[in-house]
Each structure stands twice: as structure tokens, then as C-alpha cells.
């Protein structure tokens, strides 16, 4: 959905004309592709709750780092390399900005993102940090998960009322409803549906549909054209219904291998498609008809995503996971046992090196 939105509806100036001119029919359904992000957040709430069950904070952190960073690091470096080798007048990158992007902290630090789609990852990171509070200590339980959802939703509503930027950054008052709904759907899946969980999901839907009015206005600003709002509300209802079907076990028969492959390709495809795709369009659109260029570009991006998954993401994730697991074990051992300094450092060590350690400065 997001790929279609960026290539067919988003007016980036890459095509020879505006999206309605180049894609008279296709631009209308593609104009709602930005909603794929909301679905992604809901799925994330479901998956994160599922992956945290029975795990401690260290295991949770390792699983998230190994899932997010390998493909992300590659995409940052690959996109930066393409932009440098295939420059366009308004497409420049500074090496120091690329370096900061590797931390995934460019948004809070006010650094330009290598690719515009990375903004959602900062939202994800904040959700992970909040959810880590539930995992810490006694671990994740049914009651703690429900309590977290209720408290987070109420706090986010308060944050929206007071309009304090710091609270907005921490509590995600616009996006938290999708994560909370995803968590509630997983609790239905793991245990069983009950009135409290259905009310929680219904509340998330009601607040989310109201917030989509402003979200669509922002999307229309990027697209350069307006579209009716009712399909947005319908799609949101479809997303919630689809998640409910998963939670209730109605999709258990959908175990085809292609679904697993498609799910694995979604993340690398999302990371690499936008800026590189627009560069390709800008370079070739005047010579290649859109009816040929668009399918070829989509096919090329899918192949690239598959290669990233097989050759980069999977091998690097394994190496990273093993290293982080060893590190976590050493940290736990250090917290639970006496210090075991291999090379003991004393004040005399610094004095021997010419440092005035422990002396007053004058």
C-alpha cells in the first residue's frame, strides 16, 4: 500500500506530470496507501506483545535490535550510495547526517533522514521503550498488559489535551491507538475475547478514526490533490476487522509459504523503495512509458528486497543476535556476581601515566 502511494499518488515531481495526469485511474486507490502505516502499527502491537511473552527485558531488546537494524543499516548505506553516485540537484546528503541515521535517532536529533520513510521507525522505537516498562521486573502478564493499554491510552489523551511537545514525543497521542489495539487483539488470541478487550479495541477505533482526518489532510498536502474521506474510514474498519479475524483464529488455514515470504520482504521493501524509486523514475520517466516503468520498478524493488533479506538481513541478524545474547549474559552475570576485573585499575595506574588523579585542580 505504501509503495503504491509513493509511486502513484505522491506528487514528488519525479513523473513528467501530476499523479492524476500520469495515472488517471490508478492514482485514486493509491491515494489511500498511506494507511498502510496505521496497519503496520497495529500489527506491530500484536507481534511485540506475542514476542515478549515469557521473555525478559534483555531478550526483548535483543529480538528488536536484530529485527530492525540489519536491513536498516544496509538501506541507509545503500540509499546514500545511490544518491551520491546518481546525484540530482535537490538530492544531496551529508556524510555526518548519514552517520547519525545509522543510529535511527535522526528524528529527535533534528537531522535530515536519508529516506523519508524512516519516520515510522522512530515511532516504533518509542513504542518499544514504553512496552519495555511492562516487560521489566516480573515480566509480561495478562493483567499488566491490559493495565498498560488503559494507562497509556488515558495518558495519551491527556497529552493531546495539554499540547506539550515532550509528552507528545513520549506518549504518541496520535499513533498509540493502533499499538494498543494490536496488543488487545493479541490478548484475545492468546486467552479469549471478553467485553473488556472488545471495549478497549472499540475505544481505539473511535479515537483513531477521528485522528485520521488530520492525517489525510497531511497526505493530501503531499499528493497535491484531494480525495473523499469515506474510503479512509472504511479501510480503517477493514484493518480492525482483519486483525479481529486473526485474533479469533479465523485465518489459521492461511499457512501458505508465500505469505511467510511476503511478510519477510515487507520490511526491506519499505526501507529501500521510496528515495531510490523516485530517483529511478526521475531519470527514466521521460524515455519509458509509465505503463512499462512502474511494473518494472516494482519488480526490481521486490527482487532487491528479497536479496537484502537473504544476503544481508538473515546472516547479519544471526551474527548480531549471538553477540548481543553473549553481551546480555555477561551483563546479567556482572549484576548478580562480584566484580571480576581482568585488568584492575587503581589511582596509581593514572598517576603512573602522568595523570593527577584524585588531586585538586588549581
TrEMBL record:
This protein's GO CC annotations: membrane
Name this polypeptide is given: Acyltransferase
Coiled coil: none
Pfam families, per the entry: Acyl_transf_3
Species assigned in the record: Streptosporangium nondiastaticum
GO molecular function list: acyltransferase activity, transferring groups other than amino-acyl groups
Sorted UniProt keywords: Acyltransferase, Membrane, Transferase, Transmembrane, Transmembrane helix
Start and end residues of each Acyltransferase domain: 1-309
Residue ranges of the region described as Disordered: 334-362
InterPro entries on file: Acyl_transf_3_dom, Acyltransferase_3
Membrane-spanning intervals of the chain: 32-53, 65-89, 116-135, 142-162, 195-215, 227-250, 292-312
GO BP annotations listed: lipopolysaccharide biosynthetic process
Amino acid at each position: 500500500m505504501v509503495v503504491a502511494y509513493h509511486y502513484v499518488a505522491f506528487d514528488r515531481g519525479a513523473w513528467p506530470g501530476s499523479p492524476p495526469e500520469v495515472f488517471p485511474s490508478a492514482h485514486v486507490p493509491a491515494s489511500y496507501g498511506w494507511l498502510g502505516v496505521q496497519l503496520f502499527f497495529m500489527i506491530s502491537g500484536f507481534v511485540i506483545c506475542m514476542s515478549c511473552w515469557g521473555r525478559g527485558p534483555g531478550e526483548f531488546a535483543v529480538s528488536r535490535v536484530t529485527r530492525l537494524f540489519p536491513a536498516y543499516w544496509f538501506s541507509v548505506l545503500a540509499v546514500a550510495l545511490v544518491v551520491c553516485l546518481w546525484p540530482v540537484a535537490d538530492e544531496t546528503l551529508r556524510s555526518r547526517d548519514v552517520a547519525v541515521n545509522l543510529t535511527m535517532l535522526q528524528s529527535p536529533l533534528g537531522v535530515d533522514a536519508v529516506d523519508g520513510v524512516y519516520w515510522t521507525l522512530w515511532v516504533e522505537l518509542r513504542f518499544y521503550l514504553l512496552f519495555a516498562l511492562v516487560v521489566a521486573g516480573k515480566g509480561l502478564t495478562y493483567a499488566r498488559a491490559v493495565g498498560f493499554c488503559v494507562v497509556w491510552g488515558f495518558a495519551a489523551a491527556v497529552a493531546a489535551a495539554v499540547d506539550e511537545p515532550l509528552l507528545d514525543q513520549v506518549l504518541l497521542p496520535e499513533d498509540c491507538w493502533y499499538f494498543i489495539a494490536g496488543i488487545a487483539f493479541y490478548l484475545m488470541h492468546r486467552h479469549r475475547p471478553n467485553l473488556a478487550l472488545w471495549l478497549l479495541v472499540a475505544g481505539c477505533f473511535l479515537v483513531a478514526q477521528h485522528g485520521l482526518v488530520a492525517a489525510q489532510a497531511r497526505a493530501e498536502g503531499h499528493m497535491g490533490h484531494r480525495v473523499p474521506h469515506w474510503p479512509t474510514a472504511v479501510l480503517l474498519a477493514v484493518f480492525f476487522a482483519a486483525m479481529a479475524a486473526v485474533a479469533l483464529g479465523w485465518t489459521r488455514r492461511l499457512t501458505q509459504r508465500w505469505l511467510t515470504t511476503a511478510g519477510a520482504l515487507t520490511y526491506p521493501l519499505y526501507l529501500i523503495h521510496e528515495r531510490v524509486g523516485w530517483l529511478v523514475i526521475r531519470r527514466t520517466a521521460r524515455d519509458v512509458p509509465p505503463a512499462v516503468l512502474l511494473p518494472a520498478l516494482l519488480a526490481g524493488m521486490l527482487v532487491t528486497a528479497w536479496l537484502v533479506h537473504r544476503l544481508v538481513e538473515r546472516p547479519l541478524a544471526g551474527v548480531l543476535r549471538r553477540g548481543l545474547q553473549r553481551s546480555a549474559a555477561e551483563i546479567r552475570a556482572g549484576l548478580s556476581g562480584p566484580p571480576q576485573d581482568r585488568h584492575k585499575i587503581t589511582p596509581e595506574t593514572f598517576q603512573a601515566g602522568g595523570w593527577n588523579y584524585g588531586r585538586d585542580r588549581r
